[in-house]
Structures are given as structure tokens and as C-alpha cells.
TrEMBL record, chain A:
Keyword Zinc included in the entry's annotation: no
Family statement: Belongs to the WD repeat rae1 family.
Cellular component terms per the entry's GO annotation: nuclear envelope; spindle pole
Signal peptide (residue range): 1-30
WD repeat coordinates: 103-144, 144-187, 297-331
Domain of life the protein comes from: Eukaryota
SUPFAM superfamilies, per the entry: WD40 repeat-like
Keywords: Cell cycle, Cell division, Cytoplasm, Mitosis, Nucleus, Repeat, Signal, Transport, WD repeat
GO BP term, example: cell division
Membrane-crossing residue ranges in chain numbering: none
Protein name in UniProt: Rae1 protein homolog
Organism in which the protein naturally occurs: Amphiprion ocellaris (Clown anemonefish)
Subcellular location as annotated: Cytoplasm, Cytoskeleton, Spindle pole; Nucleus
Lineage per the UniProt record: Eukaryota, Metazoa, Chordata, Craniata, Vertebrata
From TrEMBL, chain B:
Region: Disordered, residue numbers: 19-102, 116-141, 287-314
Organism in which the protein naturally occurs: Amphiprion ocellaris
The protein's name: Nucleoporin NUP42
Biased composition (Gly residues): 81-94
Keywords recorded for this protein, A-Z: Metal-binding, mRNA transport, Nuclear pore complex, Nucleus, Protein transport, Translocation, Transport, Zinc, Zinc-finger
Gene Ontology molecular function terms on file: zinc ion binding
Length: 390, 432
């Protein structure tokens, strides 16, 4: 195997693909038929009611994170981390076919993953308290970070005068790492465990336990910019930064376990008017007599071109929203499992979402045999913003 | 300007950008912290899950625009309400719209809110400029508490994740612990690997019953809870010396949870990692109901928090097959059992926490002796003594360490108020 890799490289010849499938994903149950369409009968299949493209060789346990390759790389490559301790990489071809490429292992469940800005490296964060840098060309991974607790969030920061990795952990610290050194460049203390984070230079937002919300500014060196009173009442779950028309980060969307997302601008002209929250991922909208079921918002992603956002929840649905027109654009049918992660590719044509159990109902609803899925959807049309009427 | 008919129906698509007039000046849903806004006339239209939009006295604002004064504290009142049907904020309180339709954001519907009939009580116009009318203070508090009660109701019935902090009016309420699904899942995976799933199950059930009890407590809002809550909301730290049950357990729970959090989440040491590994007494409590009966029916053993409380408060907490459900209607008897459940005596990990747990327990046991002021006033001292005595003994005291009076108390069918021992009973006295 290694000799073959040296000859062909990992992202080169497609002829070796099938073989790679067999060996690299040896533990997975099915290696797929090439990933064209939907498995099995599709009539009443609730695992894929949206009839989206299934990614082949999905992970064997819940998918915790998804990330597409940056525009600096040709083509689309998707990485997904899972609770089976692995991170997998697929190539997504233009015809919709997905090709498993490689995987790496941690010694604990992988909670987050991200790409470097040039697309040559993937960084993965795990419950084993380490983060690794995975060089895709050589398919080697080395540890670059160490925390005292599981690392929940990992992001690559590319500043004009420095580049580094930011890791947020349940040990209540936020650390910044130059990948060449075993010691962090900087370590910032947080009030509580890091639950989610997002980075769009020069801004970083971290949401912690106990409704903590901190914004960092990353120019020159990372420093705490502001602590924000949370606009939400319950546990923070996911956060995503959005940009303004000049492509500068200007605010973030924060999701909680209570089926609600808050849109918050950092320096709005009129905070009370510009910031708002909206309810999502709840059941029986019209019926006010029976109590609603309220689901957690598991992830939020902004479309890179349109600025509209997608939310995925424990109810097994995804929704697209236009935050400027303050309307919902679309809600999907309900999948039979919660949707745990989502992301857009670099040009916004592909929306990927993962269907797997998110532990929202505890261990009793955990079925290790149940297949986990990653679906790809064409996102070019559905996320166009609603036209403003004025 | 002509009045916008769509706005009156709650359907205006343009919101503030509309060229027609949107008549405002209705009264606003209350629960709004008065310190933030002075002399405001707030319309209920700001609610409905919209959050962050507060309507202030138009006279203070430029133009016809309603400029809310602050954003973050606003949303709380509306979240408890059933109103706000549209997905996006300011939808009317009249009902929920279909979430699945592409619904347009609508600014209006103060009319719907007034239809709820709450406008009078929410009227804040009487407040002085910034100082806040004292006379209206009680009303506000009532509204706040009402909102909290409704929030609890929704939380319980919605099936949403229960291990979450909760805050109302920018104040995090005590008695709620923030635990993410990932942390719980990691705990499960770790204990599964080590083979001690029972510890995990017990821990989860403990947390679950705690949460249920706290939610029940807030829902029912007996005077003691009410007083404690108001103290919290108005900025005072929960009073440890208060006789009220709610505050004692709240503070005990809060403090032990925070210490728990600090130790267990931050520490790299194996023993202190977040784990459900049971301390001996905890794990071995096979028949809590029988042990509690040994101490009489009014008071289950206050010094055996995990087992006794588990037995009396929620039968499900002892069985491994109990369903982990946030939405299930609570079977806990609120009054008596809630005291046990939320006394936070449980301890997930080693005896490092047992001291803290017992400290809180001692506090709650004194709450039971609340008719005698001596107990109520000295939870701190009792906690100190309790934890000091028990830290080394685990859950039970050897008979040699108990005075004759204490032994008599344990032997008696019921505790005598004013003489309830602070130390745990000897293990052999439990009828297991």
C-alpha cells in the first residue's frame, strides 16, 4: 500500500480509488458502489426523504463535524470527523459522485476538524485531548496540540503576520498553536468549557458553557475583545460568524438547545433593532394546544456567497434562512435521525449535512448498528436571498 | 400617514420600513428588568420569541421610530409566552404559524397581544424616569416569576435537552447545570469501555431527577422558592442562611455543582475527571426505599443523599432501565420529594466531592428542621461540620463516632425536630 501511495499520491490517479476504498476503509461495512445515488429502495425511506446524494463509506458512528476544502484547492474535498475516532476524507466530483480518499485515527472521538487555508493540511480535534495535523499529500498525521480536556473546537487562523491553530477545549482554555512547536503560542483562560467557536479573520467567537460568549480580535495577536451577555436563555450549542457586504465579519449566529438562534451584530448602528432571535426546529407550528417539541440547533452554516444561513437540528431537519429579510427560505422533510453537522463548499454549490444520533435523548436512543449518513445537496438555488421589497 | 392595515392584522411585510403608519403605544409584556429602561412604554409587539427588541417611550426617540434601549434582557419575557407564532420574532401572540411555510417576518401584532388580556398588568408607563416605581415593583416581580413558571412548563413538556443552564432576565438561575450532549456521550463511551455502565446510569438518573425536581420547584413556586428566586433575580446571592428550602438547596446545589464543575472538568487527574464512578455508598444503595423507611416516613435519611433521595423522589432513578426522558411528566411528589432530589448530595466521582455533597446535604437537612430556627440559621456551620466529619467516612459513620443521643435518634422511628443528627447513620443501622 505504501508503495502505491508513493507512486500515485493520494489526490492523483482515480484508478487506484477502488483499491483505496477497500484498504483504507477496511473496517466499514460497505464500501459502496461508487456513490451515485441513494441506497436501497427510496419510496418510503425516511433516512433520505430529500433524495439527496449519499456519501459513500460514511463513518461508523455519529458524525461530529464536516468541512469542505478551501477554494485554493481545485475540486471539492470533504472531511468528516466521527465518534468512531476517525476522520475521513472524500473527494466530491462534479457529477455528484463521492470517492473515499483517506482516513486518520485518533484515540478518542473526533469532535472538530478544519482545513488550512491552502488546502494541504487538515486539523482534527479529539476527545483524546490532542489535535493533529494531517498532511494530505503524504497521508501522515502528527500531533500539534495538547489540552487537559477534550478539544471541542479547532480553527485555522491566517493573519497577515502569523498563522496558527486555535483550539478550544473543555478544560476552559483557548490555545493558539504554531504547528511546529509543542508549546502553545498563547493560552487564554475562558470562564467555562468551550462549546463551540468560529473564526473569520480578524474575528473569533467562542461560546462556552453557562451561556458564556466571548469575542476575540485576532489582529497582531489574539486577544479578548468583548464578553457579551448571551441573548439566549439556554445552553449554547453552535455558533457561526457572518460577514457584511464588504466581506468583513460583522456578527454571528448563535444556536442553543432550545430551538432558537440569535443573530447578533458586534457593532450595529441600532443594537436593539438589529439583533434578534428566532425560533426554529420546533414541531407542530400551528397547533397551539399541544405543547411543542423543541429541538436543539446542532449546527449553523452561512452560505459563502449569498450570506443566507442553514441550520440543522435534532429534529432531523435542515432549514435555510435569510437573516436580512428575516424569513425562512426552506425547511426540509424530517429525517429519521437528528442532523448533527453541516457545511457549504467554498462556492456555495454544495450543502453537506450529516444524519446521525446526537445524544439528544440520552443513551437509550443510541443504536450503534444504525447507519450514519452524509448527504450532499445542490445549494445554488435554494439559498438565494429573498428579494427585498424596497 | 395612512395606517397600515396589514400591520393591524399582524401581517405587514415591510416592518419598520413600511411607508404606512404602524400604530404603536400599546403596553408591553412585562418581566422586563426595569433598570434597563427608564419610563418606557413598551409594546407587547416586541415579543413572540423575537427577543431583543424593546419598544421604549417614543418621546425619547428620534423620529417615529421605536428605538429599543437594550437588547439582551428583552427577549426573556416573550419566550415564556405561547405567542409569537411566526418563526421570526415579532410575530403575533395570537398563535403559532406553521413553521414549515416560508413565512415572512412580521413586525406587528400588538393587537394580538392585547387580546391576551395582559396589557394592563404589563403596563410600565407608571414607572418614573429610571428610578422605577416601587409600587409597580411587585407586579414586575410577579410577571418575572410567571414567565419563569411558563418557561419551566415549556421546558418540561417540550422534550428539549434538560441538562442546560437557564437564565431569566440576564440572571442565571441556580439549580441548573450545563452539560452538553457530547460530554454525556463521552462519559458513556468511557464507562462503557471500562465496563461500569451502571455508574453512568446512576449518575445520569441522578442528574435527571435533580433537574426534574428543580423544574417542578420553579413551576409550583411556593413562597419559599419565590423569595429565593426574587433574591437571585434582584442580584443578591442566594442566601445560605435563609430558612427557605428553595434557596438553601439552590445555593447548595449551585455551589456544589460549581465546585464539581471546576474540579471535574478542568482537572487532568484521572480521579477527578467527569465520571459517574460511584462512591461506595452511592453505588451500593440497592434498596433506598427500605432504608428511608427505617428512618421514618416524614424524613428520609438526609445523610444518605444518593440512595434515600433517589428512592423517595423518583422511583425511576434506581432502576437501570429507567427512561432518560426530559419530556416525561414528572412523577416526583413535588413537596416532600423535591427537597431530597435537589439536595444535590449526589457525588459522581470520588470522595473528593463527597465532602461538598454532604455539605450541601447538611444544609438541606437543616431546612427540614426549619421549624426550629437553630437549624435553619446554621447550615453553614453544619455543612462544615458535616463535611469534616464525613469526608473520611464516606457515607456512614461508625457507631463509635456518634453520641448516644444521635444513636437514639437513628434508632427512633422518627427524628425529633431539633435533634436530627448531622452525621450520617452507621451502616449497620440501615435496613437494607
Amino acid at each position: 500500500l505504501s508503495s502505491v501511495r508513493q507512486r500515485f499520491g493520494l489526490f492523483g490517479i482515480r484508478a487506484t480509488v477502488c483499491w483505496l476504498q477497500l484498504t483504507l476503509f477496511g473496517t466499514s461495512s460497505g464500501f459502496g458502489t461508487g456513490g451515485t445515488g441513494v441506497f436501497g429502495s427510496t419510496t418510503t425511506d425516511s433516512h433520505n426523504p430529500m433524495k439527496d446524494v449519499e456519501v459513500t463509506s460514511p463513518p461508523d458512528d455519529s458524525i461530529s463535524c464536516l468541512a469542505f476544502s478551501p477554494p485554493t484547492m481545485p475540486g471539492n474535498f470533504l472531511i468528516g470527523g466521527s465518534w468512531a475516532n476517525d476522520v475521513r476524507c472524500w473527494e466530491v466530483q462534479d457529477n455528484g459522485q463521492t470517492v473515499p480518499k483517506a482516513q486518520q485515527m485518533h484515540t478518542g472521538p473526533v469532535l472538530d476538524a478544519c482545513w488550512s487555508d491552502d488546502g494541504s493540511k487538515v486539523f482534527t480535534a479529539s476527545c483524546d485531548k490532542t489535535a493533529k495535523m494531517w498532511d494530505l499529500n503524504s497521508n501522515q498525521a502528527m500531533q500539534i496540540a495538547q489540552h487537559d480536556g477534550p478539544i471541542k473546537a479547532i480553527h485555522w487562523i491566517k493573519a497577515p503576520n502569523y498563522s496558527c491553530i486555535m483550539t478550544g477545549s473543555w478544560d476552559k482554555t483557548l490555545k493558539f498553536w504554531d504547528t511546529r512547536s509543542p508549546n502553545p503560542m498563547m493560552s487564554l483562560q475562558m470562564p467555562e468549557r468551550c462549546y463551540c467557536a468560529d473564526v473569520v479573520y480578524p474575528m473569533a467567537v467562542v461560546a462556552t458553557a453557562e451561556r458564556g460568549l466571548i469575542v476575540y480580535q485576532l489582529e497582531n495577536q489574539p486577544s479578548e475583545f468583548r464578553r457579551i451577555d448571551s441573548p439566549l436563555k439556554h445552553q449554547h450549542r453552535c455558533v457561526a460568524i457572518f460577514k457584511d457586504k464588504q466581506n468583513k465579519p460583522t456578527g454571528f449566529a448563535l444556536g442553543s438547545i432550545e430551538g432558537r438562534v440569535a443573530i447578533h451584530y458586534i457593532n450595529p448602528p441600532n443594537p436593539a433593532k438589529d439583533n434578534f432571535t428566532f425560533k426554529c426546529h420546533r414541531s407542530n407550528g400551528t397547533n397551539t394546544t399541544t405543547p411543542q417539541d423543541i429541538y436543539a440547533v446542532n449546527a449553523i452554516s452561512f452560505h459563502p456567497v449569498h450570506g443566507t444561513l442553514a441550520t440543522v437540528g435534532s429534529d432531523g431537519r435542515f432549514s435555510f434562512w435569510d437573516k436580512d429579510a428575516r424569513t425562512k427560505l426552506k425547511t426540509s422533510e424530517q429525517l429519521d435521525q437528528p442532523i448533527t453537522a453541516c457545511c457549504f463548499n467554498h462556492n456555495g454549490n454544495i450543502f453537506a449535512y450529516a444524519s446521525s444520533y446526537d445524544w439528544s435523548k440520552g443513551h437509550e436512543y443510541y443504536n450503534p448498528q444504525k447507519k450514519n449518513y452524509i448527504f450532499l445537496r445542490n445549494a445554488a438555488e435554494e439559498l438565494k436571498p429573498r428579494n427585498k421589497k424596497w | 400617514m395612512p395606517v397600515c392595515s396589514f400591520f393591524l392584522q399582524g401581517r405587514c411585510r415591510y416592518g419598520d420600513k413600511c411607508w404606512n403608519e404602524h400604530p404603536r403605544g400599546g403596553t408591553r409584556g412585562g418581566g422586563y428588568n426595569d433598570n434597563r429602561s427608564s419610563g418606557q412604554q413598551q409594546s407587547r409587539g416586541g415579543g413572540g420569541g423575537f427577543g431583543n427588541r424593546v419598544w421604549v417611550n417614543p418621546s425619547q426617540q428620534k423620529g417615529a421610530y421605536i428605538q429599543p434601549s437594550s437588547f439582551s434582557s428583552h427577549g426573556s419575557d416573550d419566550w415564556g409566552r405561547g405567542g409569537g407564532g411566526s418563526d421570526w420574532g415579532r410575530g403575533g401572540g395570537g398563535g403559532r404559524r406553521d413553521n414549515l411555510k416560508s413565512s415572512e417576518f412580521s413586525f406587528s401584532s400588538q393587537n394580538k397581544f392585547s387580546a391576551l388580556g395582559t396589557s394592563n398588568t404589563f403596563d410600565r408607563g407608571g414607572r418614573g424616569g429610571g428610578s422605577g416605581g416601587v409600587s409597580a415593583g411587585d407586579e414586575d416581580d410577579d410577571k418575572k416569576l410567571e414567565i419563569i413558571q411558563m418557561d419551566m412548563d415549556i421546558w418540561e413538556s417540550s422534550g428539549q435537552w434538560g441538562f442546560s443552564c437557564y437564565s431569566s432576565f440576564k440572571t442565571p438561575l441556580s439549580g441548573f447545570t450545563d452539560l452538553s450532549p457530547e460530554e454525556l456521550r463521552l462519559e458513556y463511551y468511557s464507562t462503557r469501555a471500562s465496563g461500569d455502565l451502571q455508574g453512568y446510569l446512576n449518575g445520569v438518573n441522578q442528574l435527571l431527577s435533580q433537574w426534574k425536581n428543580r423544574v417542578q420547584e420553579l413551576k409550583i413556586m411556593n413562597p419559599a422558592t419565590r423569595a429565593a428566586l426574587l433574591a437571585e433575580l434582584n442580584g443578591a446571592a442566594p442566601q445560605a442562611s435563609s430558612v427557605s428550602f428553595g434557596s438553601t438547596t439552590g445555593s447548595g446545589f449551585g455551589s456544589s455543582m460549581s465546585s464539581f464543575g471546576n474540579k471535574d472538568f478542568g482537572a487532568p487527574a484521572q480521579a477527578r475527571s467527569f465520571s459517574f464512578a460511584s462512591s461506595p455508598g452511592f453505588g451500593s444503595s440497592a434498596a433506598p426505599s427500605s432504608s428511608s423507611s427505617g428512618f421514618g416516613n416524614t424524613l428520609a435519611a438526609p445523610t444518605q443523599p444518593p440512595s434515600g433521595f433517589g428512592g423517595s423522589s423518583a422511583p425511576s432513578s434506581t432502576s437501570a432501565a429507567s427512561s432518560f426522558s426530559f419530556a416525561a411528566a414528572s412523577t416526583d411528589k413535588p413537596a416532600a420529594a423535591s427537597g431530597f432530589g435537589s439536595a444535590s448530595g449526589f457525588s459522581f466521582s470520588s470522595t473528593a466531592n463527597a465532602g461538598g455533597g454532604f455539605g450541601a446535604t447538611a444544609g438541606s437537612s437543616s431546612a427540614f428542621g426549619q421549624t426550629s430556627g437553630g437549624f435553619g440559621a446554621t447550615p453553614a456551620a453544619a455543612a462544615g461540620a458535616g463535611s469534616a466529619a464525613e469526608a473520611s467516612d464516606g457515607l456512614f459513620s461508625p457507631e463509635s463516632k456518634l453520641t448516644q443521643d444521635e444513636l437514639n435518634q437513628f434508632k427512633a422511628k422518627r427524628f425529633t425536630l431539633g435533634q436530627i443528627p448531622l452525621k450520617p447513620p452507621p451502616a449497620n443501622m440501615l435496613m437494607v
